[in-house]
């Protein structure tokens, strides 16, 4: 993506290079999502990035990279710690065939997500206003998603404890990390194993326009997560598994 180019055309081109097709409807919805993001940013404290071209790269395109590791035939996905809707909303826009759950604990951000999904008519999206620890212990949600993804800022052992309980056996958890992804994955191997996961692969991509390197850490769920995980809210971050 040439950062100085009009962002819709450049985003479409860069997404196509990843193997992600964005039709006119998807581009129109992303443009409207961007408008909502900027309009409500001050009220909800959604993002420090306010330049449309930077949003297109660092939020939209970055979110869509998780589609490059999505298995064929996937039907259900959850975005844990969705925040302003990344990566979940761009993924739901690009793949209307997916059923996407956005898990977010902050009520104000849940309000924003509800506004967006209603305004954008995203009938394939539902909002779960809860901490990921509580969601992972809810029998209606536990082991109910074929894929969990998180772009949240937390260490990999913490994200694995929050996400793997939500994933069906044989499903995958994808942690969207920066350049340190491989190092984090190696350090988290024991914790991932304790949660029923196994490191499957690490995919490294470089975002255009000097936006940096991304690592997609793919963890396969090979066994049921023990009932004691996730621990109660706040504990995974305070005492990460080793």
Please state the overall shape, judged from the principal axes of the Cα atoms: globular
Number of helices: 10
Q: Which structural category fits the helices and strands?
A: alpha/beta
The tally of strands reads 7
Largest sheet: 7 strands, mixed
The largest beta-sheet arranges its strands as 3-2-1-4-5-7-6
Which CATH architecture of the domain at 71-238 would you pick?
A: 3-Layer(aba) Sandwich
Query: Cα distance, first to last residue?
Result: 39 Å
Low-confidence stretches are none
Features:
40% helix, 7-stranded mixed β-sheet, 242 residues
Note down, in words, how this protein is organized.
This protein has 242 residues and is α/β, with parallel strands linked by helices. It has a domain at 71-238: Vaccinia Virus protein VP39 (Rossmann fold, 3-Layer(aba) Sandwich), CATH 3.40.50.150. It has ten helices and seven strands. The protein has helices at 7-17, 24-44, 52-64, 88-94, 107-119, 132-137, 156-163, 181-187, 189-194, 235-238; strands at 76-80, 99-104, 125-129, 145-150, 167-177, 197-207, 212-221. A seven-stranded mixed sheet has the order 3-2-1-4-5-7-6, sandwiched between helices. β1, α4 (88-94) and β2 (99-104) form a beta-alpha-beta unit. The mean pLDDT is 95.
Q: Any chance you could write out the topology, listing elements then pairs?
A:
Blueprint: H1 7-17, H2 24-44, H3 52-64, E1 76-80, H4 88-94, E2 99-104, H5 107-119, E3 125-129, H6 132-137, E4 145-150, H7 156-163, E5 167-177, H8 181-187, H9 189-194, E6 197-207, E7 212-221, H10 235-238
């Amino acid at each position: 993506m040439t950062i100085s180019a009009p962002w819709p055309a450049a985003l479409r081109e860069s997404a196509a290079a990843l193997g992600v097709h964005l039709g006119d409807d998807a581009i129109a919805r992303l443009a409207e999502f961007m408008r909502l993001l900027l309009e409500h940013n001050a009220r909800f404290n959604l993002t420090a990035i306010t330049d449309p071209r930077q949003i297109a790269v660092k939020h939209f395109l970055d979110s869509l990279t998780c589609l490059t590791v999505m298995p064929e035939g996937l039907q259900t996905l959850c975005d844990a710690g969705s925040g302003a809707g990344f990566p979940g909303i761009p993924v739901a826009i690009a793949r209307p065939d997916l059923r996407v759950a956005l898990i977010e604990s902050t009520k104000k951000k849940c309000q924003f997500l509800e506004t967006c999904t209603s305004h954008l008519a995203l009938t394939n999206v539902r909002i779960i206003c809860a901490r990921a620890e509580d969601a992972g212990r809810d029998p209606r949600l536990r082991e109910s998603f074929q894929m969990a993804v998180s772009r949240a800022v937390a260490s990999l052992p913490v994200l694995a404890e929050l996400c793997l309980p939500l994933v069906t056996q044989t499903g995958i958890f994808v942690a969207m990390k920066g350049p340190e992804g491989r190092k984090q994955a190696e350090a988290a191997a024991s914790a991932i194993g304790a949660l029923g996961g196994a490191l499957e692969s690490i995919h490294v991509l470089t975002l255009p326009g000097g936006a940096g390197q991304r690592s997609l850490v793919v963890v396969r769920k090979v066994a049921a997560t023990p009932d004691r995980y996730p621990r109660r809210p706040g504990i995974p971050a305070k005492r990460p598994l080793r």
